[in-house]
Amino acid sequence: MAEPKTKISRVDPVWDQITEDAHQAVRDEPIMGGLIHACILHHKTLDRALSYRFAAKLSSNEMSMVILREIADEAYASAPELVESARADLVAIYERDPACHRLLQPVLFFKGFQAVQAYRVGHWLWQQGRYDLAYFVQMRVSELFSVDIHPAAVVGKGIMIDHAHSIVIGETARVGDNVSLLHGVTLGGTGKEDGDRHPKIENGVLIGAGAKVLGNITVGHCSRVASGSVVLTDVPPCKTVAGVPAKIVGEAGCDQPSVKMDQMFAGK
Fold it and tell me: Which reaction is recorded as catalysed by this protein (predicted)?
């Protein structure tokens, strides 16, 4: 009789690093052990940890943690791409945010990461036609994190929302991959019109703090929107726009503005 094969564990270097960070954090600060075990070390995979964190943060007297955990577990089991997007988001934050020193930090402490992962579950619910539950998730994310992303909006992977205060992303907005948004960014409409009325942000875009991008317009790939700008017209790829209303003030300055996070402009 043939000897049974040893089961080979799935390789997940991001999760391995998070658990290593968690063990070190407990050694450094034992009083955090209960939280870290509940959120990280009690779980065998990233999706289980994300599911727990989603339920723990969004639960209230209106919706129990048990029910929310079941919803998140169903979402991650049905849509593995949610976990792949979370991995990409974690790496994006670690690489772009100088305040992020460990992969553990976003999972436990960064409301931008937590808000985006909760939105992803809400978006999955929206795609399933479970609209009221998706709206509930949107409401709780807005209440908890000051991040208001409509569950119908489409958001890519590798997203960093730094500080994540007062972020608004409207119903028909589309955000590409590897986009960085700073606090106070609005991707909104321009009035009461119905239909496709929100911005389309292409891959690799950097949008500075307080910028407002309004209407059914496109911000081309690898462009930069300066802090405090109001963008009302299309932005070509690989350009920098600034002002109220925003105008082209130069080139983007590098191949990947959202990764380099350089918000300075050397004028003529």
Answer: L-serine + acetyl-CoA = O-acetyl-L-serine + CoA
SS3 184: coil
Q: What mean pLDDT do residues 56-75 have?
A: 97
Cα 137 to chain centroid distance, Å, stands at 15
Domains and their CATH numbers in the chain: 13-146 (1.10.3130.10), 153-267 (2.160.10.10)
Alpha carbons within 13 angstroms on the beta-carbon side of residue 114 total 26
Which residues are CB-neighbours of 91 under 8 A, at least 6 positions away? 14, 103, 158
Residue 177 has phi, psi (to 5 degrees) of: -85, 155
Side-by-side strand order, sheet with 212-214: 147-149, 167-169, 186-188, 212-214, 230-231
Q: How far is the C-alpha of 103 from the C-alpha of 92, rounded, in Å?
A: 10
Examine the pLDDT at 3 and tell me if it is beyond 80: no
How many angstroms separate the CA atoms of 73 and 50, rounded? 9
pLDDT tens track for 199-244: 999 999 999 999 999 999 999 999 999 999 999 999 999 999 999 9
**The residue to which tokens 């997940």 are assigned:** 12
The H or E element that residue 170 is part of is none
Omega of the bond prior to 98 within 30 degrees of 0, cis?
A: no
d(CA 260, CA 24): 29
Of 207, 177, 188, the C-alpha closest to 149 is: 188
Q: Cα–chain-centroid distance for residue 162?
A: 9
